[in-house]
Design goal:
Blueprint (H helix, E strand, L loop, with lengths): L2 E6 L4 H12 L6 E7 L5 E7 L2 H8 L8 E7 L14 E2 L5 E9 L2 H10 L9 H15 L4 H11 L2 E9 L2 E10 L4 E4 L4 E4 L11 E4 L4 E6 L2 E6 L4 E2 L4 E2 L15 H7 L1 H9 L3 E2 L4 E2 L8 H6 L2 E6 L1 H18 L3 E5 H4 L10 E7 L5 H12 L3 E6 L5 H5 L2 E4 L12 H21 L4 H21 L3 H11 L4 E6 L3 H16 L2 E6 L16 E5 L6 H13 L3 E7 L4 H5 L2 E5 L7 H19 L18
Parallel strand pairs: 18-19, 18-20, 20-21, 21-22, 23-24, 23-25, 25-26, 26-27
Antiparallel strand pairs: 1-4, 1-10, 2-3, 2-4, 5-6, 6-7, 7-8, 8-12, 9-10, 9-11, 11-15, 12-13, 13-14, 16-17
Helix pairs in contact: 3-4, 4-5, 7-13, 7-14, 9-13, 9-16, 14-19, 15-19, 16-19
Bound molecules: 6-O-phosphono-alpha-D-glucopyranose.
The site of 6-O-phosphono-alpha-D-glucopyranose (G6P) has 15 residues, from helix 9.
Length: 613
């Protein structure tokens, strides 16, 4: 949430900052701002409500010189998304400027104290309080800026990734993090800082991931990292594995569409080197040392948020079916505040695309304190969650820029499938022949997903019929239920049509009251163990004049005869239904949203990475 980017070096900072903000815009787009310091020691700050392009138009023709600068794109927490609350914020004497991602929880009492000491505030933000605090400490204790920042950070409670510049110290950027991500790019006599590596990758592949409670003091020729307890750290420079072309739309109209179409590849990448169908073997390097844990596990608890939580529900079906370990799937935000009963024999699997979701991180910390073994399933390499967990499996889906998750979801489901089979193999709960059969089918999934994508034109036509709907109901049974939930989430996120996902049989206990001839009911009705039951549910909908769109297995005739619209997906083992049935639902939401004129890549009020609770 909120994107931050900074630069110090010998190039013009502004083009780097503004391009970086465009790359980070998926993190928040309520407002944007930049600060630039030029050789005349002028600190020029420009900020505007709305998207980065608004800011760019505003700055056109104004002085944006300087070889040191920083920028921010905001997802509002404290204070309305207007010009005044946009970052950067300044100290009272206007010498210091700050950008911030996170929340300073004790900003209220700090603000009162500072007001009592004569400070005046221009915004409603917690961030402005922090920069005033630094100014206050610097003046009162007569400290240099480095020390004042360190002392101030010891006084704040909450989460932050910050970058600070000073007019009086024009050759330095100071960056710090606690609970919010921060990457430093190391160039040739230049440094970059950013919330993630996307603004950095085209300039350097050498990065340092700042740890919690660390402050980086950056000069053109020097980097010093200290903890907030004043202990010097040796920076660990690592090579970034991120391809620049994955951050571009590559000819697609939207990132979301590109990412939907990348799924044959991303699912393949997630499985690569991990499955051996001929031998009937799954190999997961990240968790291979934990075989005994799986053998002895009493229970698996999956914690996640949003789409990742839906992947967790699919995981529940797969792990219980194949590895015979009881699974509970929890919203991380509820789990963390619920005093859950956790034992040392429990395994917690935390699922997160970004690896930065605040609630998921807090749930991990809680489970860890209580002795559970924690595994992560994350997409962003080097993000916080993989560093918090004991071990894990990366999904390798590549960067996902569209705010609504698509390829990350199917990669998470793939990773969970691999984990379920790995656990089954370890525990001996799956006959070798069956595992060989399943892995042989799994290997074909990327091609089958490719085939499912061929229905795009048909789906566009169906989308035209549904584009003016006010509500929609998504139904599924078994692992089709989480698919229905994910289908409903996708539709409401990007098209703003109210949608609900329901287990098909539960429809009778409430949602059936909503059904009329205006209401599209999207049903996962593929040929699997619940096929006949789903057919009954479709009949119940039709009897109430509902409009049925059914996702069916290719060659189906029975459902076709009763549904208003059908979309076929290729046949495969029931285990892989979620990977295939999700594809048409993603395309349906995408087309409906585009037809309604919505911004599919940046839906209103949402952010890709939710680093505040
Ligand atoms: C936000 C995103 C969703 C995502 C959820 C969890 O709401 O918009 O797409 O599913 O956060 O994020 P995570 O990075 O933990 O998977």
């Amino acid at each position: 949430m909120c994107g931050i980017v900074g630069y110090i070096g010998n190039r013009d900072a502004y083009p780097i900052i503004i391009k970086g903000l465009h790359r980070l815009e998926y993190r928040g787009y309520d407002s944007a701002g930049v600060a630039l310091l030029n050789p005349e020691k002028e600190l020029n700050i420009y900020k505007k409500a709305g998207k980065v392009s608004n800011l760019e138009d505003f700055i056109a023709g104004k002085n944006h010189s300087g070889k040191i600068g920083m920028g921010h794109t905001r997802w509002a927490t404290h204070g309305a998304p207007n010009d005044k609350n946009s970052h950067p914020h300044q100290s009272g004497d206007e010498n210091l400027a700050i950008i911030h991602n996170g929340i300073i929880e004790n900003y209220g009492p700090l603000k009162e104290e500072l007001i009592a000491r004569g400070h005046q505030f221009k915004s409603d933000t917690d961030t402005e309080v922090l920069i005033h605090l630094i100014e206050d400490i610097q003046k009162e204790a007569n400290l240099d800026l480095r020390e004042a920042v360190r002392v101030a950070l010891n006084e704040v409670v909450g989460a932050y990734a910050i970058v600070i510049m000073s007019k009086k110290d024009p050759d330095q950027l100071i960056a710090a993090r606690k609970g919010s991500p921060m990457v430093i790019g190391v160039g040739d006599r230049e440094y970059f800082v950013a919330s993630d590596a996307t603004p950095i990758v085209e300039y350097t592949k050498n990065v340092i991931y700042l740890n919690d409670n660390e402050i980086a003091y950056l000069k053109r020729d020097e980097i010093l990292i200290k903890t907030i307890d004043n202990i010097v750290q040796s920076p660990y420079v690592q090579e970034l594995e991120l391809k620049l072309e994955l951050l571009e739309k590559g000819g697609y109209e939207h990132f979301m569409l590109k990412e939907i179409y990348e799924q044959p590849q991303s699912i393949h990448d997630c499985m690569r080197g991990r499955i051996y169908p001929l031998e009937g073997k799954v190999q997961l390097g990240g968790i291979k040392d934990y075989a005994e844990k799986f053998k002895n596990a009493d229970r698996i608890i999956i914690v996640a948020c949003g789409t990742s939580w839906h992947a967790g529900l699919v995981g529940e079906y797969l792990i219980e079916e194949y590895a015979r370990i009881p699974v509970e799937v929890e919203y991380a935000s509820e789990f963390r505040y619920r005093n859950p009963i956790i034992s040392e024999k429990d395994i917690v699997i935390a699922i997160s695309q970004s690896g930065e979701t605040a609630d998921t991180m807090a749930a991990i910390e809680l489970a860890k304190e209580r002795g559970a073994t924690i595994f992560g399933i994350c997409n962003v390499v080097g993000s916080s969650i993989p560093r918090l967990t004991h071990a894990g499996v990366y999904t390798h889906a590549g960067p996902e820029i569209g705010v609504a998750s698509t390829k990350a979801f199917t990669a998470q489901v793939t990773a969970l499938t691999l984990m379920a089979f790995y656990m089954a193999q370890t525990k001996g709960t799956l006959a070798q022949n069956r595992l060989i059969g399943l892995l042989t089918e799994l290997e074909k999934i990327p091609d089958l997903v490719q085939k499912a994508l061929l229905s795009n034109d048909l789906i566009l036509e169906i989308a035209k019929k549904f584009q003016n709907s006010r509500n929609a109901l998504f139904l599924g049974r078994g692992s089709g239920f989480p698919v229905a939930l994910e289908g409903a989430l996708k539709l409401k996120e990007i098209s703003y049509i109210h949608a609900e996902g329901y287990p098909a049989a539960e429809m009778k206990h409430g949602p059936i009251a909503l059904i009329d001839e205006e209401m599209p009911v999207i049903v996962i009705a593929t040929k699997n163990s619940s096929y006949e039951k789903v057919i009954s549910n479709i009949q119940e909908v039709k009897a109430r004049k509902g409009v049925v769109l059914a996702i069916v297995t290719e060659g189906d005739t029975e459902v076709k005869a009763m549904a208003d619209y059908t979309i076929e997906i290729p046949h495969s083992d029931e285990a892989f239904l979620p990977l295939l049935a999700t594809i048409p639902l993603q395309l349906l939401s995408y087309h409906i949203a585009v037809l309604r004129g919505c911004n599919v890549d940046q839906p209103r009020n949402l952010a890709k990475s939710v680093t505040v609770e």
